[in-house]
Amino acid sequence: MATAPSSADGNWDDLLQQGTGPVQESFLDLVRKTRHYVGYSPDIVWGNLQTPQYAEAMLRLVVDFHGIPDDIQAGAAARTARAQFIGQEGRTYHVLLGYQALLTNIGGPEVMRAQLHRLAEALSLPGLTLGIIPARARLQIYPGDGFSLFDDRRVEVEGFRGGETITDPARLALFRKAFDRLQPSALYGGAARELIETALSGT
Description:
Elements: H1 12-16, H2 20-33, E1 36-41, H3 52-66, H4 72-80, E2 92-98, H5 100-103, H6 109-122, E3 128-133, E4 147-150, E5 154-159, E6 162-166, H7 169-182, H8 189-201
Parallel strand pairs: 1-2, 2-3
Antiparallel strand pairs: 1-4, 4-5, 5-6
């Protein structure tokens, strides 16, 4: 889904009414400025690793749901452009995906197969630590919404209600605490690859 811009960029709802392009461009600028990122996505693939086809299918759902201008190609181009910053200039990314993110059917079997292959390739990207939380993993915290934490200074949370930008230090600390409690449940490296391959066998 789309993600909220900073207050300096304008209101999220106002930008979204212009289409997916302005929101995704705003988010791309945020990613460009970020040096250290941690994030949790329980049920869809992290935006920075989405293939063009997956991103287009995802944004099609956003356009149809919100009834906004159909500029999906512009939005998808901005969203997939985030990948260029992985491994660049000392940036670090630590991302947790719920196993459901590998199964949620966005765009159909062909789109999902390509997306899962992309995730498998991403396991070896420099600057990226990618963990997958198995469906039956024991959690140290109750499940919650996905979120993105940028340089420990800003959190983005998104859902049907739209996007929420959080900068209050006390609330930021809660999201960092949540990430730290989710992280021990995740699998990495070869174990994560096996989870991806299991999901691929079912597509």
